[in-house]
Each structure stands twice: as C-alpha cells, then as structure tokens.
TrEMBL record:
Pfam families: RimK, Rimk_N, Zn_protease. InterPro entries: Asp_endopeptidase (IPR008503), ATP-grasp (IPR011761), ATP-grasp_RimK-type (IPR013651), ATP_grasp_subdomain_1 (IPR013815), Peptidase_aspartic_dom_sf (IPR021109), Rimk_N (IPR041107), Rp_bS6_RimK/Lys_biosynth_LsyX (IPR004666). GO terms for molecular function: ATP binding; metal ion binding; ribosomal S6-glutamic acid ligase activity. Residues 271-454 form the ATP-grasp domain. This is Probable alpha-L-glutamate ligase. One of its GO terms (cellular component) is cytoplasm. It comes from the Bacteria. It comes from Actibacterium pelagium. GO terms for biological process: SOS response; translation. In the C-terminal section; belongs to the RimK family.
Amino acid sequence: MDKISNAGEPFRLGWEEWLSLPELGLPALKAKIDTGARTSALHAFDIEPFGPAAKPKVRFAVHPIPGRTDVTIACSAPITDRREVTSSNGETELRYVITSQLTMGDRSWPIEITLTDRGTMAYRMLLGRQALTEDLIVSPTDSFCQPQLSYDIYASPSVRTSAPPRSLRIAILSREANNYSTRRLVDEGEARGHVVEVIDTLRCYMALNASSPEVHYDGKRLPRYDAVVPRIGASITSYGTAVVRQFETTGTYCVNGSDGITASRDKLHAHQILARHRIGMPVTAFAASPKDTNNLIGLVGGAPLIVKLLESTQGKGVVLAETKKAAESVISAFRGLRASFLVQHFVKEAAGEDIRCLVVGGKVVAAIKRTAQPGEFRSNLHQGGAASAVKITKEERAAAVRAARAFRLNLAGVDLLRSEEGPKVLEVNSSPGLEGIERSSGKNIAAHLFDEIEKNMRPAPTRKRVTS
C-alpha cells in the first residue's frame, strides 16, 4: 500500500501514538515517537531466521500488550538487512531488519523495523526518525494527536480470522523424499511462501529431559517447526510414532497425532475404536486359541470370509477364504507363522469395489471409487485396482468424517464398502497417498491440507478483556 498523502496538510504526531502493523497481524500498538533515535524497533522474542540463503526470512513472536505475556502474536517477514544498532544506554546489538507497512490514522507508509526484546519497556514499539516522512510534525509536548486504538481488539475473534498469511516452517516426516505425495506437499507449501523441509524419520534421534525435550538430525538439533506432517510408513510405525510424540512434547502442531497413527495401524485396535464410536463396519472377530477357530468363523457369518493380518497395508496380508475348509486352512497357516490376524465378514454386494474418502480437517475433500481387477477382490491401487471419481451419499460422508474424528486424525484416508445395510468402514489410513486420489478426482488435496495447517497457525484471541 502506497503512502497516503494529504497535500498541504501537515500530519501531526505527539510523543506517543497508536499505530498498527497490518502485514504482521498487529492491529494495535502503543508507540513512543523518538526523534533522537535513528532506527525504529519492535518488541520481539523467539527470533529465528529460516528459509533459503537467497531469500532469507525471520520469524518471531510479539507480546503486543505491556505486562501481558498471555497474548502472543506469531509473525514472519523477509529479512531486509542485519545491522548493529546502539541503544540509548550505549549497548550495541546485532539486529534483524524487516520492512513493513505502518498505519496511523488515515496514513499508511512502509518503514524499516529492527527486532529486539523490549519486554521491559513501557512501549512495545519505538518509532525513530528514519520512519518519519518530511510532512510529519512531531509535537513533543502532546500525546495521541492521531485517533486512539485499543488493546481490546486482541480479544476479538477477528484477530484470528483476519490475520495475514505468514511464512511457516514445516517439516514432512518421510523416508521417500521423491515420491508423489511428498513432492506435492513440498511444491504446494513453497508455492504459498512457506519453507518445507523433508526429514528422514529414521535419521531423527531424541534427547529426553524434563526442561527441554529435543529432536536431533544428522548431528544437529532440529529447529523449531510451526507444523509437522507425519508420513510414517507401516514398517517403521513404532519408531516413527515415537518421533511424532517427541515433536508433540515440544509443543509442535502435528497434523496427525502419534496416538491416532498407532491406533490406525493396529487393525484390531482400529476396529475396537470404530465399534466404541458405533461406526458401521463389517462384523469382525479375533481369537488367540486354535480351539476357537470354528466359533471364530461362525461369529462373522461363515464363509466366504476375509482373514486379515493386524498390520497389513496396501492389500497385502489380506486373504479371501471362499469356503469353511479354506478358512480353516488359512487360519491354521497364519497361526503356524505366529501372525496376529482377525477374521471379517465378506460383503458380497460390494462386488470388488470400495470408496476411498479423503478427510482433511473434519471434511471430506475428495472421494474416489476403487475397482478390483477381474478375479481379484482387493481394490487397492497397489494391487492393480482402477480408480475413478465418485459422488458419495450423505451417510457415506458422515461415516468417513466420524471415523477420522474417532482417531483424531486431521488427514485420513477412510475406506468404505457399500453394503445393503449402509456404508461399512474397512480401514482408516493415517498416511494416505495423494497420487491416485488427486489424479482421479481432479482435486488439489495438498492445498486443502495447507489450508488446515494455516488455519491452525493463526493467533488465538485472548479470552480476558483488556483495557487501554
């Protein structure tokens, strides 16, 4: 926004004024106007540079209200410079410099701002002479010549909804930096101005202590991330969820939590959660003793039935037993291998088709129908199934959303069967692939995910009423 000029009319300032920095999400600040100071300074803490060397950025937090540490606004901006600044007490400090639009009264103009901790100062901002244009007149004996604002605005929900987008530092936990899903997330994040880093989950290690839990990577402590997107492979679920827990311990926002990932990977636990939330699913049974085989088969309505390993993925470890004798043989074989498995009713009317619903932030953002190859009952794309866009019913949409919420997953692929009794949830996937569903549905799933991340990164309004 260009400077607004009132030709011929001087713009009068007192020694203290209210102003706003809208590009930083700071709608009200009380500032001291100091013509004796050359540079302007804004109170900031947790100051951290990030981003590529060619286009460095800085992120920081601000307590805009003096004496109120419970009100925090997170900010980020491109770095304009870094220079030494000497304060009024003679101390020299190397500070990051940013440029931002300043609004005061009916005027707005860009200024350079240095970042420093002014936590002990009565004014969260100092406006130096570099920020004062030629037609500004400062009256050192007057206060608030321009319209006054109020700190009450920080208690308004509008602070959250109208906060400007800021650059985020986001980590993707993935062992496959070049696969479609990871590349799509990196490309979408960078297109929005965020810094997205792919972190190999198995190369992370953790320092556990009460005062400062840390995550390390390749010999260095990892920086503070605004958000983490876990893409934890089934083969590393245990260690991967431990890394996610460590990020949760540090206070980092994780798109999917460790508990939800762990529960979704264990088929038995997952079905127990679905049952507890009264979410429709095929009748499922589990037993440890070989003496219970016949009863186990009977519980799911007899053959044909599905025998499924507890940690199966992408259709692997899933067997269709078409007769009772075949079911007994498969169950016996799995027990001989000491494998944990469950037995499930086979929904014949599904006819080798299922529905994959992609749920982001409690909403179904895309859905596809997956159809198995002729002679195959598994419709997984990794097993050669074909995918096409599909219109789902209100009941199917509700079932998918309820299933994702039951696991507290902000990103989930929910697989449904269309049965005569209504939708049946087969599985809830905490690391769904994006390639098949993006290409088949034409939807930008990565964009929906970043919308959800950005929504969670907006500043929350304070609940206490504040006064000016």
